[in-house]
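pasting input
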Amino acid sequence: MDTVEIKTLIGQLARLDCHSMYLNDFLLTWEKSDDEIKATFLAAEILHELRRKNISCRIFDSGLGVSLFRDQSTRTRFSFASACNLLGIAVQDLDEGKSQVAHGETVRETANMVSFMTDVIGIRDDMYIGKGNAYMREVAEAVKQGYQEGILEQRPTLVNLQCDIDHPTQSMSDMLHLIKSCGGEENLKGKKIAMTWAYSPSYGKPLSVPQGVIGLMTRFGMDVFLAHPSGYEVMPDVEEVARRNAADAGGRFITTHSMAEAFEGAHFVYPKSWAPFAAMQKRTDLFGQGDHDGIKNLEKELLAQNAGHKDWECTDQLMATTRNGNALYMHCLPADITGVSCTAGEVAAGVFDRYRGPLYMQASYKPYIIAAMILLSKVQSPADQLANLLEAGRPRMC
Amino acid sequence: MDTVEIKTLIGQLARLDCHSMYLNDFLLTWEKSDDEIKATFLAAEILHELRRKNISCRIFDSGLGVSLFRDQSTRTRFSFASACNLLGIAVQDLDEGKSQVAHGETVRETANMVSFMTDVIGIRDDMYIGKGNAYMREVAEAVKQGYQEGILEQRPTLVNLQCDIDHPTQSMSDMLHLIKSCGGEENLKGKKIAMTWAYSPSYGKPLSVPQGVIGLMTRFGMDVFLAHPSGYEVMPDVEEVARRNAADAGGRFITTHSMAEAFEGAHFVYPKSWAPFAAMQKRTDLFGQGDHDGIKNLEKELLAQNAGHKDWECTDQLMATTRNGNALYMHCLPADITGVSCTAGEVAAGVFDRYRGPLYMQASYKPYIIAAMILLSKVQSPADQLANLLEAGRPRMC
Amino acid sequence: MDTVEIKTLIGQLARLDCHSMYLNDFLLTWEKSDDEIKATFLAAEILHELRRKNISCRIFDSGLGVSLFRDQSTRTRFSFASACNLLGIAVQDLDEGKSQVAHGETVRETANMVSFMTDVIGIRDDMYIGKGNAYMREVAEAVKQGYQEGILEQRPTLVNLQCDIDHPTQSMSDMLHLIKSCGGEENLKGKKIAMTWAYSPSYGKPLSVPQGVIGLMTRFGMDVFLAHPSGYEVMPDVEEVARRNAADAGGRFITTHSMAEAFEGAHFVYPKSWAPFAAMQKRTDLFGQGDHDGIKNLEKELLAQNAGHKDWECTDQLMATTRNGNALYMHCLPADITGVSCTAGEVAAGVFDRYRGPLYMQASYKPYIIAAMILLSKVQSPADQLANLLEAGRPRMC
């Protein structure tokens, strides 16, 4: 992309109303206006293009990014680290060790204690229903208050790196991938996407990916199908969000228990395992009661329940039923690939193999999405700031 | 603070004699002259003001800060990371894993091996009496020698992030908090501060906080009361330092076994649990003998001993006896708060709640104190350097 | 060194053909041409001199360096961190946790997922024969392909931080130490170096150090003696490399079972423990079969075998037989020092003590060697780039 084209993107960003993102957090995509969602995509693209032209995107001379991962992470961890580094922020991991950080007083205190020079806090907390997002809001509220009271010199922005409800850095990367694949958001209208459950030999995968996808992709006038076996429902509240979005955007949100129906004629397919919402809620309750035997029994039940749906696999046959037989296959990775990482999984090896390039590309947007989220929350006039970076043209690498 | 006021502070710093801090370490506050202590406060304040004005304090283009935590840490870890980052230094953690680093040959070797491009080494080693500070001196000596022999290109400065004797980054932050609360060091003379033991259900909290406080705060002409139940004495050597300081500064250092006496009319109170020095020494000996049963028994004894002093709690009633009933309540955090983090603890929830703002502020000085310690040890003409930063006015964040 | 001398070194670098290093990896020294080896030494020296003159070597404004240590490391970890930091790259550790990263699909995927903004990947994987180097090639191939397919914006260069075959950052540092000790590469011709086995109470030390040494040092026209007890052979392939190198360079590669013969008249001695190649291969097979009892038995056998060779110690008596009784004693550290870190070890305390300065110096080159490897792989015209840094003269520390 040449300089003129980048300036065009910057011009588009300048015309969007994203002033509420300034000194704010990014917790759920559906809390953001259409302009704010678009601004995030645009800022991500502009940062990407600047870096491609070897232009420094560094807006911070110093500053800390605190990362707190309450669940394992490789790609999101590196995406957050990359985003911070791109902007000039040093990452410092908050390692809670094996101790449970108590709620109440301690959250507020810890949040402030690590934030005296912190510009951004990224948290993954997706293990327990009703907990992760609530925890993030507690942290965000604590540092906001600390900032207002003059304890913190700057307002650290909170970026949700996956909670029990949403996984915005994932769904936004997925969406940007779709937009780029179709040559623009305007081409998505009326297209069909199948977010479907798929079999996995593992247990308890978070709901935040399918929820994030239906919560976001229903905003673009697409026909969004959510397919899963009976009993694998996602959070009713998020389904409600999806229904409302679809109505507003002139698209459809359809739930079905048939993978075939969802794939039929689809332009995009996103087959992925997740745990039933009700079971996850039960698990959270058992955990709260300290009932470890109960958790073990539940785990066994769920694995047995999963095993009854091994036919929910993204095979070549199913792919053949999609639009022109070549729907774009999507996954947040890592996928459970039949015959590669497990004996029976979410996707046939042949399908996965054919789409490896696009899948890696899908993942490649995440660092830029995170960087855009940070930029939009930290900079009052992001379009001007990006124009300045382009103008300055300081090389990322000499 | 406007530019003229910052220049005034820089002018004050220029007039202090702190040339011995250059290429030196910060291990115990009482090894530093009054001018050096003042210079540290001034440099911390100037750095703070520069950052508040969004002026970069970066004096390093590259350089490593090695952190070694032999005990858990959140706030000091982040303070060290923040301080290094503010100055342009990247933190690299030295993780000793589960292996005990042997003394003798290995300390000298490891210290040099991690220091080829290291500008500062921060160490927390507070677990065993007679060990932590000694270890720091061994490391400091090793890298000093490595520098003199031309093995290291630069002299890494050692910052004591808490040892068995002192916790200078804490006590200096506490002190700066006092100075700011009173509107200047000159207003401290004759004021009363109560450093008192308080009950905690936990065991073996380090002595370095009360020792650091009495070792530093006796230098400002205050009446420093050290109160604790019989049997909870601190190191006699540090009490001796406090006595000498008080005499030199025209203040008083008074020990008592009555919390009420210490609180009576106090301007500042610092109630906090610690372990008896004699017990900690016994524990170190048992550890040296590998007598784990002995350690367990000692632990039980100490908890029982603690439990006899649950009345050592900072309550509203006690606070009411302080100067105008509104002494400044201080704590290094986290505090054991009755009814919040434990059933009976160091402080009543109501007291803690009322002072949360000031407590967080107290903690907020630590990153700047550490940055000042690094600056003063690395830069030959710190006042000139800070004037240059102000003059350059490079934004911390664009 | 003054500016004119640095310019002379830059001029020498400019005349070397190292264009194949650009966008390439550093896996085995014997895959590199003589010009490329020389270029690495020169670039390391120039970077060293620039830093000595307080001139910034920062060529990256942002960028990540991924480090993956599958075996414990202190000095190489800090060397890698120092090298990255010197050039402006932030280190992000890839912690595989306790899980074995599966081969095949996953390696390719993980390699790409952590590399979206990654400029360099440093890996230590030295535990199993036939595995470490192969793994590195798999990672390098994956990111190379990712770069070619446009998934990665830049080609991350892979630096071998020790594998089962070679330890190039170590052997290159060792070699630079030799060159500097002799006042130039041209003075090495005809000199004798003894790479000898030495007794250690521990078990299973990697073969990569002796292999790296004989694979590199045979290229300089020296007489390279490899001495070890019968049964402690290194990989035959590497011996073959050494033989070929020696023939090409007009030197000799001689193997012997006598430590005395190797030391006799030597200019340089490098006594160090390692595990027998055949035993390591057996261990790898047992590991592959999950035969943990077999591994334990093998371990016992090997320790017993070692114990039969306690006379393989670098003593004062042996040192006396070297050239003028003052051969340069070398070690990659940490050494097993008799009476200091063990009752009987690789070297007498007196010998080690006398050579501590040179030993630390030997280690000091590693950060610069790694930085040179990164520079040569990332920068198309390294001599021009270094000249620019010298010209700009931006201070490393204000």
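fyi The two ends of chain B are 21 Å apart (CA to CA).
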